[in-house]
Specification:
Blueprint lengths: L8 H8 L4 E3 L2 E3 L4 E6 L4 E7 L3 H21 L2 H17 L1 H11 L4 H20 L9 E2 L7 E8 L2 E5 L5 H14 L3 E5 L6 H12 L7 E3 L4 H10 L5 E5 L2 H11 L5 E5 L5 E4 L5 H13 L11 E5 H16 L20 H16 L3 E4 L3 E2 L5 E2 L2 E4 L6 H4 L6 E7 L2 H9 L3 E2 L1 E5 L3 H10 L4 E4 L14 E2 L2 E2 L4 H7 L1 E8 L1
Parallel strand pairs: 7-8, 7-10, 8-9, 10-11, 12-13, 12-20, 13-18, 17-18, 20-21
Antiparallel strand pairs: 1-2, 3-4, 5-6, 6-24, 11-23, 14-17, 15-16, 19-22
Helix pairs in contact: 2-8, 3-5, 3-7, 4-5, 5-6, 8-9, 10-11
Pfam families: Aldedh
Keywords: Oxidoreductase
Protein name: Aldehyde dehydrogenase family protein
């Protein structure tokens, strides 16, 4: 029997309390419900209220009322103070957030606490500084005797849809700039992982955000998500998820031509040149994929290794895989990786492994499910892979790394860019000129050189091609949640 970290009293009370929708500062129960599963054991964890179209209407109305009322009447400094206070509360309750994400997502508790919660607080603090710095401009127009200036205004009500791989962090990536720009929010968390978003809504009230500024409505994507994306009272949709769902979001948004930003799938290329610091490159390339159990749009899933060092890199990767521990997110003996999110996802991941093997790839680590309970997949490394195999072309979203050799720079640039996706790419080299050239020529929204996965609230993040459009974080994120008004004066 695995020894588990005891639940904090606040977590026990939260799970026992009404896991209702958070709308207009109140808790709304519904006829339908969602059973949330603990992926570490494959057993029911709790039941939460399920929003449908009617509840989306209620939440949008509550957000509109808050936006037109107390939220818009606050000064920038007052908004800043409340966002900053929310950051402080997230920091203070990091252990609670860590347990909630470890329970319904399965990621190791220490990671959920020390990475996801900590970076969420950091993100909120960064955007807390923005309300007093959102400025229009005076335009030197060529029309005689006219004065022209611009105002940067909020969109109004923003519908935000967060994924299950980083339940708290991805929600905050959207919530923080939307609040900083002065909007009110209807947030739909992923139905698999609604707990931390619901808890965050309660903290928002404690931080002094007016009732209705942050509404959280768990629900099914094809129901609540579709209703939110198509709602005429929503002026902006921010979505993170699959490319297929992103297309449906765009179609649903056409009714009132709302603003849309999309952070979608990826199949990132990670390139190791023969002159790289191999010790750092091997460890970096390993965790570029296996970090967060491969459940990341930026996972370095296609590892291209220059032929002279290919065997050495493969050997190093296999050694690292052999030392990785896999187990429940709330285990007292902390593990490196938890389960994948669901039984369905486990079957998808193992299906890709089987597909690669059937097409001629060789498995040098992992290869399938771990244990009979929970949704665990062993860290898997495939070699003998070609660019045309499904495992090398399609997003797996799980702990499967494909390693492919290459010979020269021109070849690997062409192969790395031969994908529908363009979210991230990386390279490992000590040649500064080569690094600069590849940073220009690789078609991806983020390029990491001799590192992987670094983000900061001040630096823009987003994709090209079918990895989406719009940029989260930094000044670009403020632009996502704002609109410019031009004013002419005689």
């Amino acid at each position: 029997m695995t020894d588990l970290i005891p639940l904090l009293p606040d977590v026990e009370a939260f799970l026992e309390g009404p896991l209702s929708l958070r709308i207009g500062g109140g808790k709304i129960d519904t006829a339908g419900s969602i059973e949330v599963t603990d992926p570490s054991f494959g057993t029911p964890l709790c039941t939460v209220a399920k929003a449908g179209a009617a509840e989306v209407d209620l939440a949008v109305a509550a957000a509109a009322e808050a936006y037109e009322g107390p939220w818009s009447s606050m000064t920038p400094d007052e908004r800043s103070q409340r966002i900053w206070r929310l950051a402080e509360l997230v920091d203070q309750r990091a252990e609670i957030f860590g347990q909630l994400d470890a329970l319904d997502n399965g990621k190791p508790f220490a990671v959920a606490r020390d990475v996801d919660a900590a970076y969420s607080a950091r993100h909120l603090r960064y955007f807390a500084g923005w309300p007093s710095k959102i400025e229009g401009a005076t335009i030197p127009v060529s029309v005689p005797d006219r004065f022209n200036y611009t105002r940067i205004e909020p969109v109004g009500v923003c519908g935000l849809i967060a994924p299950w791989n980083y339940p708290l962090l991805m929600a905050v990536w959207k919530i923080a700039p939307a609040l900083a720009a002065g909007n009110a929010i209807v947030m739909k968390p992923a139905e698999q992982t609604p707990l931390s978003a619901l808890y965050l809504a309660d903290l928002a009230l404690e931080a002094g955000l007016p009732e209705g500024v942050l509404n959280v409505i768990p629900g099914i994507g094809t129901e609540a998500g579709a209703a939110l994306a198509g709602h005429p009272g929503v002026g902006k949709i921010g979505f993170t998820g699959s490319t297929a769902t992103g297309r449906r979001i765009v179609e649903a948004s056409m009714g009132n031509l709302k603003k849309v930003s999309l952070e979608l799938g990826g199949k990132a290329a990670n390139i190791v040149f023969a002159d790289a610091d191999l010790e750092k490159a091997v460890a970096g390339a390993f965790w570029a994929l296996f970090g967060n159990n491969g459940q990341s749009c930026t996972a370095g899933a296609r590892l291209y290794v220059q032929r002279p060092v290919y065997d050495k890199v493969v050997e190093g990767l296999a050694e690292l895989a052999a030392g990785v521990s896999v187990g429940p997110g709330m285990a007292e003996a902390a593990h490196d990786l938890g389960p994948v999110i669901s039984e369905r996802q486990m079957q998808t991941v193992t299906g890709y492994i089987d597909s690669g093997l059937s097409e001629g790839a060789e498995c040098i680590a992992g290869g399938g499910r771990v244990g009979a309970a929970g949704y665990f997949v062993a860290p898997t490394i495939l070699i003998g892979v070609t660019d045309t195999m499904r495992a090398a072309r399609e997003e797996i979203f799980g702990p499967v790394l494909c390693v492919l050799p290459f010979d020269d720079e021109a070849e690997v640039i062409a192969r790395a860019n031969d994908t529908d996706y363009g979210l991230a790419a990386g390279l490992w080299t000590q040649d500064v000129t080569r690094a600069r050239v590849l940073a220009e020529r690789l078609k991806a929204g983020t390029i990491w050189i001799n590192c992987w996965g670094e983000t900061d609230a001040a630096s823009p993040f987003g994709g090209m091609k079918q990895s989406g459009y719009g940029r989260e974080m930094g000044a670009d994120a403020i632009a996502l949640y704002s609109q410019t008004k031009s004013v002419w004066v005689v």
